[in-house]
Amino acid sequence: MFWINTKRIIKSGFVHFWRNGVVSLASVLVMSITLFVLGSLIFFGALLDTSLQQIKEKVDINIYFIISAQENDILTIKKSLETLPEVTSVEYVSREATLNVRAKDTSQYESIARFLESKNALAGDGKTIIDKVNYYQNKIVIDRLTQIIKGSEQLGFAAALVLILISIIITFNTIRLTIYISREEISVMKLVGAQNKYVRGPFIIEGMLYGVIASLIAVVLFYPATRWLGDLTEKFFGGMNIFHFYVEHFGQIFLTLLGFGVLLGIVASFLAVRKYLRV
Questions:
Q1: Which end of the chain is more exposed for a tag (fewer CB within 10 A), N or C?
Q2: Rounded Cα distance, 127 and 144, in Å
Q3: What stretches in the chain show pLDDT beneath 50?
Q4: What are the chain's domains?
Q5: Does the model's pTM come out above 0.85?
């Protein structure tokens, strides 16, 4: 009996989808825009991460040693720095030159500078061999870069939430229109004693169909869009070609859009039936 009812719900969902052709098309188009916006945020996030990572890689601090510093002592300090969790790499050129220290995050350079000022960075005889650390000369630039990175991440997250919320509201209202068209059919179903789950079922299936078709449309539209923008992003974002990213991560992008589209269709349909048709 369960499978028979399930088949009926699925069949009714497909029937509603095809019967309400114009409204279904409008719902799919709205959801396609929603998923395209979501996908665009994924691409924008990848570009932002790549750009910020390249900026981070160009930032480091240099450690200058006194003339009488012994190479063994310099190498000891180098090993001590490499054990710090904040440090990504330490490059040693020669005793006459410097140690170039690169942190995992720009906000961690201050703690590295403090470590170098502590007794942990002393030579074997208990004396410091460090002449100068240029962190404090670069502190303003590093702090400003850290603020820009944090601000960009927060702005991107806030923009994503706003756009997704707007898209959900639009999709919800479009699906509500579909349900409004079928209000008489729902009333009849309620009069003959149909349970709520059987009334909601076809609309939830219909919402899922919107999500599946819309995700296919969105992921197909990204092909010409990313192909056209590929050379531009490679030129202006430090070598990242957005089309190559699309091809390499096609499966992940499609599954993300598909999952979000289906979930959006289910939630919007469920809420629209419950709130506006008093089922």
A1: N
A2: 34
A3: 279
A4: 2-55+159-276 (no CATH), 57-144 (3.30.70)
A5: no
